[in-house]
Task: inverse folding
């Protein structure tokens, strides 16, 4: 989650805001075995994905509060750098 939140912080470069990342990652992060085995109808599946996306978006927007703030000792060298610097030609 911290890595995804770091990507949100670089959304001006990547155009991957919290909502976009949540749409992409929510079905994988919050997969429900019940809905997979029950062959959920299209409408119900859509509602489930909407709910999952809203939850992941909330988590991404509040990662520091929910999981504590990052420190260099937590993730080693390169703390705070989730994207390599852009090569300027």
Result:
């Amino acid at each position: 989650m911290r890595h995804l939140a770091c990507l949100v912080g670089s959304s001006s470069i990547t155009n991957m805001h919290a909502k976009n990342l949540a749409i992409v990652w929510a079905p994988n992060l919050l997969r429900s075995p019940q809905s997979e085995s029950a062959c959920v109808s299209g409408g119900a599946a859509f509602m489930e994905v909407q709910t999952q996306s809203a939850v992941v978006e909330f988590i991404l927007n509040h990662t520091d509060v929910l999981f504590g703030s990052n420190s260099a000792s937590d993730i080693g060298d390169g703390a705070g750098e989730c994207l390599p610097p852009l090569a300027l030609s």
Q: What stands out?
A: Residues 2-71 form a domain with the Phosphatidylinositol 3-kinase; Chain A fold (CATH 1.10.555.10). The chain has one domain: 2-71. The longest helix spans residues 42-61. DSSP finds seven helices and no strands in the chain.
